[in-house]
Amino acid sequence: MKTAVLGHGTVGSGVCEILLDRKKDVSIAAGKEIELGPVLDIRDFDNIPYSDRFTKDFSAVLADPEVGIVAEAMGGIEPAFSYLKAALESGKSVVTSNKELVAEKGAELLSIARAHNANFLFEASVGGGIPLMRPLYSAMSAAGITEMAGILNGTTNYILTKMFSFGADYSDALADAQKLGYAERDPSADVLGWDACRKIAILSSLVWKKTLRPDEIPTEGITKITVKDVSAAEKCGFSIKLLARAKRLENGKIFAKVSPALVKTGSPLSTVSDVYNAVLVRAETTGEVLFYGRGAGKMPTASAVVSDIIECAKAKDNIENVYWENGAQSVFAGKDSVPEKYFIRTEGDVDHVLFGLEKLCENVFMTKPLTESEFSVLKEKINEHGSLLSKIPLFE
Amino acid sequence: MKTAVLGHGTVGSGVCEILLDRKKDVSIAAGKEIELGPVLDIRDFDNIPYSDRFTKDFSAVLADPEVGIVAEAMGGIEPAFSYLKAALESGKSVVTSNKELVAEKGAELLSIARAHNANFLFEASVGGGIPLMRPLYSAMSAAGITEMAGILNGTTNYILTKMFSFGADYSDALADAQKLGYAERDPSADVLGWDACRKIAILSSLVWKKTLRPDEIPTEGITKITVKDVSAAEKCGFSIKLLARAKRLENGKIFAKVSPALVKTGSPLSTVSDVYNAVLVRAETTGEVLFYGRGAGKMPTASAVVSDIIECAKAKDNIENVYWENGAQSVFAGKDSVPEKYFIRTEGDVDHVLFGLEKLCENVFMTKPLTESEFSVLKEKINEHGSLLSKIPLFE
């Protein structure tokens, strides 16, 4: 069976390399021969061993009856969406590393896949090389997952690790990440939390079977985190991580949030450093489970794409558990639905305002569980007598 | 489809509860109705809601055409082996939490399963509720796994955690674990490392497709670890964990070892505390991946059994990747095949003997990589001038 690869960038070229260099392993795992088919890219690649496979014409890929699987690694919504829709409609299975596309168009593509008895898989869109999606939709499908909390963005985790370990300023740590190629020249999608937001939207939709739209999720990045926050947290026994969280409430709605959050030093999430990712899953029957690994990078991400290619090759029909719907109503529970404890740094004469709260050290307190609205009231009081310098929710 | 449950102890009763209480979730995940069938136990259970399902006669279970899946949680080799062999030969699929059976008879049962187009799955035999087997044989099947290191025994990890966190003596920590029900009255299988040994034998066999026999694996428990070892390790930036390790060498042989080992403080394995388990997997394409969760306990283990029941119900044929063979030759590489660094504690005037080694603190050194035989030579030299108090390999 031939696999076409769309987009020959970092991930796409990694997929080609694995399909060529590990052809035997991949074919054994799939139970049938898996061959690299046409590779679509608008650029020319004349001097590589498989340059004869390149094409600029998607309709040729679509028309090729030997292509049973299409692996997309172009990124962005268009033309990826139109290409993948057409591939699924012609009965080809599709795998992708494109989290933007899955977060925005997942329900639609899954529905088209089902209608044509094909598969649409996207292991590589969240957590890079960590086998994550399959345990969630397969081994844990009846475990009663209630909550997920993930460190899903390697760039921000690298920056926070530098701030924590070396006392680096945010801007210095960002510059360092850019120098090493971990952060892009325009780092907005990472540092403002959008990337993590798309990923938790995908996980939530997959696990609870209804689309959670990224634009509904309150999302705060790490740009306001200072070295003072990091060192105050450390002094009190915590690390600061950019967490993407989702929790199923009793009414069936989903509370989700992307923000810096405190995790206890020594807890499994606290040791996830540098560009590593991890997802903590809580389920009724299994308790806490954590998946950890390289969340990005050419070979880990390409390896996840290839694991989906193998899954598609093995599947005899549409895999039923990989599915979610665009509900008529939003599943988002609202930002005020779950009260949280907040770690706050203050200045000024505010001790009497915060009387009764846990005082962690000078000017640093832990609030009782508060909703966002309740917190606003507290904030006003603090600012009457001093200043609220920062506020970071605690993940317990 | 009916699932028979063999053995109504901790795990078996958990399986019954999940199949009854979560029937809808389980059936949705399996894509067909999954019903609790006959429950086999030599004891009577008259006062529970499903007491009408009990039987003491395995041949009745075997003869029931509605029973498509048999879940075994009796433990031990016999009669479990004979029962499961008969079930597979009659075309029923079998799932088990019985690590002793899988480690000893895995290849044989897998071969019978294949011959009868049935499945033999054993997710619950290693790592309790952690989805571990399926990622290894499915998502990572072509990733080129080179090495695994696991904290696979909750009892010993609990004892080491107490020694580390509270400076408890080994015997006090063991007594505490027994009081809490984490350790059995005869704790040998846990504290001598046999349980972890069986589990790494299963993982190694599954991943590299040839039986690694537990009795070939050099296995050392935690009974010789003292508070002084633990605190010296901590002072030098390490934790001591009972690690079960396996590594594929270039000649295709497997080096495996169960022993206390040093892991760097702050590394993901170091934070695995109390009864939690974790497995670190290194693979060519994905780099490091870690799976973490509850390695034992009624519901986590039962949940893993049920995830296998779902997998059997969904599978249309024998799952090809779940397979290994009894090779004609042993795959074990020999205990001298991989040199390791050792953390050693000494007493007496031994500094001149250890000249050139890294001195971590007074009387504590880290050796260069040494094989077991090379270490014996060093040990003799040390004991000429003082004493070797302890020797613990470093896991890097």
What do these coordinates show?
- 2 copies of one chain form a homodimer.
- The first copy, chain A, is α/β, with parallel strands linked by helices and 396 residues long.
- Chain A has 3 domains: 2-129 and 299-314, NAD(P)-binding Rossmann-like Domain (Rossmann fold); 135-295, Dihydrodipicolinate Reductase, domain 2, CATH 3.30.360; 342-393, no CATH class.
- Helices cover 35% and strands 23% of the residues of chain A.
- Chain A has 13 helices and 15 strands.
- In chain A, the strands form 3 sheets. Chain A has a 6-stranded parallel β-sheet with strand order 3-2-1-4-5-6, sandwiched between helices. Chain A has a 5-stranded antiparallel β-sheet with strand order 9-8-7-10-11.
- Chain A is elongated and about 75 Å long.
- The N and C termini of chain A lie far apart (47 Å).
- At the A-B interface, α2, β10, β11 and α12 of A face α2, β11 and α12 of B.
- β11 of chain A pairs antiparallel with β11 of chain B, so a sheet runs across the interface.
